[in-house]
Write a structure and sequence with these properties.
- This protein is mainly beta and about 1000 residues long.
- The chain is built from 11 helices and 55 strands.
- The radius of gyration is 32 Å and the shape is globular.
- A hairpin with a 3-residue loop joins strand 27 and strand 28.
- It comes from Chitinophaga oryziterrae.
- Keywords: Cell outer membrane, Membrane, Signal, TonB box, Transmembrane, Transmembrane beta strand, Transport.
Length: about 1000
């Protein structure tokens, strides 16, 4: 059209001046004919696309920017000079031609130029206005990490990782900026390659055969950690609010590896290792026990270390094979892995086989259409031990081993396991022998993503994802001589889940001189379906006789009543975001997400979650141009709101049941008619828990990366928490689910400091440290207090250790204050009421369930072909209730059980009753050498087919300095009481392991 217009002008001019017309026609038509779209792609030195790079013509001053794949299109004449620039990279000048331009920019500042993943897109670090941290595979692939959440430990300020158990594949608690809910957990939203995962269980839980019920395993353990390319943690509301109702606990974005720039590659990773218990608890040995006894009948003549009986040296192996290739139009990566880990407790194990395929291809002219596919499938087989989460001395394998009298023998004179002949206390080796617990979980996660360029800078994206899992758990306790299912029992628990995701969104990038805009708008729909069944048998055949019930449940026994359930919920969302950048100095980001959930009341289906953030790159101001020592100095500020929808399905609706207890007699006293019981009161006004967060941060880089880092202050407040509280008068039920006006406030500082201490040809050394403070308080709770943290142990039924109360931090402890012992070894407690009687009224509140300072230190060194790295983690200001110590109290000497040495050496009286007090409250402070790795890379110049061979040794949990007397101070057992979560209680869980590895990475 432009050509036609100019020709018309030339014709008009010919009527006025033939010579003038000829000159104008020739000149303008010639220029137009030469001005054609010039295509190109901009990448970094590692082949990673650089989004947001500026492409400017030195002739016409036309400017455009690259999209998230690093691609650009600009209408210029052939031969024009173009300047390609991006913050953190050295600018490069190229000449426009007819061929596609492939531009590789070299880093000038690796921190600023780093491309980071954000929700529904990516940015350079220099353009980021929110609080987020991105970790790359090379910095997190250390030690044995079954699940991705373990890989974050000690790497990110404000992120605390605590294992609920050391059992292979067990759950992990991730705390990002504190505890924001009384009722639900702290788990953030995990998004894998653009697919948000549900935090619901994907493996079946175990039954309670009187030995405790077992929790399902970690839902993230299906991912092969070798497949992970980057992990990005979105911490503040500005970064996380694009995920709206699920972003209150933070968001973790996981991207997996793809084919990289260069020829085809084949990589084989493998390691072998051995593990042992991180430490043994200090209980009395046989000789010490004999000296301590007051009743000689408890000397059984043996000499057994029961911890040695159940613990073993576990073996772990991992093999991963991957191959990848790129082409002019796409790339692919395929991997296959197998991991097998024997737990440090006999009969426990974890085996996983995974396969992954990532593919990307472009179609049509100028790569107008790009299609990506991500697919992973995992098959997991686990064996568990009788160590259920109901905890305490009455059912836990590990506590039975710790309590076992060391003068007892493992086996009797017949060669069989010694029968302790005691209720609620059994030979731990015998328990293991009669118990089988096997779980198989198969999971498939995949999505297909298509991006269509509609116009220059305008792209439409479609994303469809599926997350499907099935799990079968077979649990058996064979006929035995204990009082726990003496006739034997079998149960099969099945779980099936399906999540489907459908998303459409548009992105538009545009530049006008120094102004850069990016606009995002879209729609998302996700559906979740869960179903489960349970059936079982009692009175099964003896172990070793007939067919095991897991293979033929009907072989023998009496069937129990089967049960099942099915649930479904949906989430429909609209979201938008605007990014504005002026001259790479002033940055503005605003986002809004509207989420509608079937989990909430008819009157409150939708929640709206806005955010806004500002950034100022001070170092790019004119008055800073002479300050060569400063490469980055950026000030950031943000505000936003996110939500929490982690509530049970259907709680907004009334629930009824028929029962004889609520029935009545019709006509006479013989015909009882079932009556209707109201189980749950409807609340159509139930709405989201709302989290409002302020964040102020500064990013800096000095002396060419000799020192770089960030400092953050955050204030994060949970409003309208959802609680199941006592209902008002005339209510049909005693409790009701409702929002209350309480607040949970988390605030603190985060700091990250890093330095490239040395960077020469032969030697480089990078060191970074991170730390975070946390202050947590509860405000405006409409009830006087809420209790949680159910304590387990003899005589402690119904005792709670946690209290939620205004003015105190979440999960504070509520107990008697222990002052010591009198001359006869009797406990002395503080008499707060002054009435001379110690009872529940003398309890007081102790804070410290949540550590108030966490830190990590990470170092990486390279000398020629050697590489060496190590990391430390630690925490201070926290406390743990040592429930293990409660079970191993001094009273155990009077009941044929073992005791912790410290109570015996304190000369405590064996007649002291067991009471929850500060005697069992211990500091959880620690410093741990979390990982050490030493490697050497062999290069074989004569073998052209072998690129590199790296051999390494590694140690994990090598050294822990702590005053805590339990197995591990870094523990948080997931358990609720009255619907409220427990915090800071060590329930004698499966302990952590110390691991040594020998590994190799071979690249062909």
């Amino acid at each position: 059209m432009n050509n036609q217009f100019l020709l018309m002008v030339a014709v008009w001019l010919s009527a006025v001046s033939p010579s003038m017309a000829h000159e104008a026609s020739h000149r303008n038509y010639y220029q137009v004919a030469r001005q054609e779209p010039v295509k190109g792609v901009v990448v970094g030195s590692d082949g990673t696309p650089i989004p947001g790079a500026s492409v400017k013509s030195l002739t016409s001053n036309k400017v455009t920017t690259t999209n998230e794949r690093g691609e650009f299109s600009i209408e210029v004449a052939n031969g024009e000079k173009l300047v390609i620039s991006s913050i953190g990279y050295t600018s490069q000048e190229v000449t426009a031609g007819t061929k596609t331009l492939n531009v590789t920019l070299q880093l000038s500042n690796s921190q600023l130029g780093e491309v980071v993943v954000v929700g529904y897109g990516s940015q350079t670090k220099a353009d980021v206005t929110g609080a987020l941290t991105q970790l790359k595979a090379d910095n997190i692939k250390q030690g044995v990490n079954i699940s991705v959440d373990n890989m974050l430990q000690g790497k990110v300020a404000g992120v605390r990782i605590a294992q609920s158990s050391g059992e292979p594949g067990a759950g992990v608690d991730v705390f990002i900026r504190g505890v924001g809910s009384i009722r639900s957990g702290s788990t953030p939203l995990f998004v894998v390659d653009g697919v948000p995962l549900s935090n619901d269980n994907v493996s079946a839980g175990g039954p309670d055969f009187g030995l405790g019920s077992s929790e399902p395993k970690n839902p993230l353990n299906f991912l092969n950690t070798s497949d992970i390319e980057t992990i990005t943690i979105l911490k503040d509301a500005s970064a996380a609010s694009i995920y709206g109702a699920r972003g209150s606990n933070g968001v973790v974005l996981i991207t997996t590896k793809r084919g990289s720039k260069g020829g085809p590659s084949l990589t084989y990773d493998a390691y072998l290792g051995t593990s042992k218990v991180i430490k043994k608890l200090d209980v009395l040995n046989a000789d010490e026990y004999r000296k301590a006894l007051v009743n000689p009948a408890y000397d059984h003549g043996g000499n057994t270390d029961w911890q040695d009986v159940i613990y073993r040296n576990g073996f772990v192996q991992n093999h991963n094979l991957s191959f990848a290739k790129t082409s002019a139009t796409g790339s692919y990566l395929a991997s296959l892995s197998h991991m097998a880990q024997d737990g440090i407790v006999e009969k426990s194990s974890f085996k996983r086989t995974t396969a992954r395929l990532n593919a990307e291809e472009s179609f049509f002219d100028e790569k107008r259409l790009t299609v990506k596919m991500n697919l992973t499938a995992s098959d997991i087989n686990e064996t568990a031990i009788p160590n259920g989460n109901t905890a305490g001395s009455d059912g836990q394998l590990i506590i039975h081993a710790l309590m076992a009298n060391p003068t007892r023998s493992l086996r009797d004179s017949t060669g069989g396991y010694t029968n302790f002949n005691m209720n609620a206390h059994y030979n731990p080796a015998y328990l293991l022998s009669i118990y089988d617990d096997k779980t198989n979980t198969f999971r498939v996660l995949g999505n297909i993503e298509a991006t269509l360029r509609l116009l220059p800078g305008l792209n439409y994206r479609f994303n469809y994802g599926i997350d499907k899992s099935t799990s079968e758990r077979n649990s058996t306790i064979y006929p035995n001589v204990t009082d726990r299912q003496p006739n034997g029992a079998y149960a099969q628990n099945n779980l099936s889940s399906l999540s489907t995701l459908l998303e459409h969104y548009l992105t538009y990038n545009h530049s006008i001189d120094k102004h850069q805009f990016e606009v995002l708008g879209g729609f998302s729909y996700q559906q979740f379906k869960f179903s489960g069944t349970t059936f079982g048998m009692i009175g099964i055949t003896k172990q070793g006789q007939g067919v095991d019930p897991e293979y033929n449940p009907g072989y023998a026994g009496t069937a129990t009543s089967p049960s099942g359930y099915a649930q479904e919920n949906e989430l429909q969302s609209y979201f938008g975001r605007v990014n504005y950048n002026y001259d790479s100095r002033y940055m503005f980001t605003a986002s809004l997400r509207a989420d509608g959930s079937t989990r909430f009341g008819e009157n409150k289906k939708y929640g709206y979650f806005p955010s806004v953030a500002l950034g100022w790159a001070i170092n790019r101001e004119g008055f800073m141009k002479d300050m060569d020592a400063i490469q980055e100095l950026k000030l950031r500020a943000s505000w936003g709101q996110t939500g929490n929808q982690e509530v049970p399905n259907k709680i907004t609706q009334a629930s009824y049941s028929l029962s004889t207890g609520a029935g009545y007699y019709l006509y006479d006293n013989l015909n009882l008619v079932n009556g209707t019981t109201v189980n749950r009161t409807a609340n159509p006004d139930l709405r989201w828990e709302l989290v409002e967060q302020y964040n102020v941060g500064v990013d800096f880089g000095f002396w060419k990366n000799k020192l770089y880092g960030s400092l953050e202050y955050y204030n994060k407040t949970t409003k309208n928490p959802i609680l199941n509280i006592p209902s008002g008068p005339l209510s049909p039920t005693t409790t009701v689910w409702k929002n209350v006006d309480a607040q949970i406030v988390n605030k603190g500082f985060e700091i990250m400091l890093g330095s490239q201490l040395v960077r020469t040809r032969d030697f480089s050394w990078t060191l970074d440290v991170n730390g975070s403070t946390l202050s947590n308080k509860i405000k405006d709770l409409p009830v006087s207090e809420l209790y949680s943290g159910s304590i387990s142990g003899p005589g402690l039924s119904g005792v709670n250790a946690n209290i939620y109360k205004n003015g105190y931090e979440a999960g504070s402890f509520y107990m008697l204050k222990h002052l010591g012992y009198d001359k006869d070894g009797k406990d002395i407690f503080e008499d707060k009421t002054g009435d001379g009687v110690i009872n529940a009224n003398d309890r007081e509140i102790f804070e410290g369930a949540i550590p108030n300072f966490n830190f990590g230190l990470n170092s990486q060194m390279r000398y020629k072909k050697f590489d060496f790295s190590f990391s430390f983690i630690g925490q201070t200001g926290g406390y743990l209730v040592n429930n293990t110590a409660l079970d191993l109290n001094i009273n155990s000497l009077a009941s044929d059980r073992n005791v912790l040495r410290k109570y015996y050496e304190a000369k405590a009286s064996t007649t002291n009753p067991v009471q929850l007090s500060s005697l069992y409250l211990e500091k959880s402070d620690f410093v741990r050498l979390n990982n050490v790795r030493l490697g050497y890379t062999f290069t074989c110049d004569r073998l052209t087919w072998l690129k590199s061979f790296n051999l390494y040794v590694s140690a994990q949990n090598l050294l822990t300095i702590t005053g805590y007397s339990g197995y591990d101070p870094l523990v948080n057992t997931t358990k609720t009481s009255g619907g409220n979560q427990s915090l800071g209680i060590d329930y004698t869980t499966y302990p952590a392991a110390k691991t040594f590895l020998l590994g190799a990475t071979v690249k062909f």
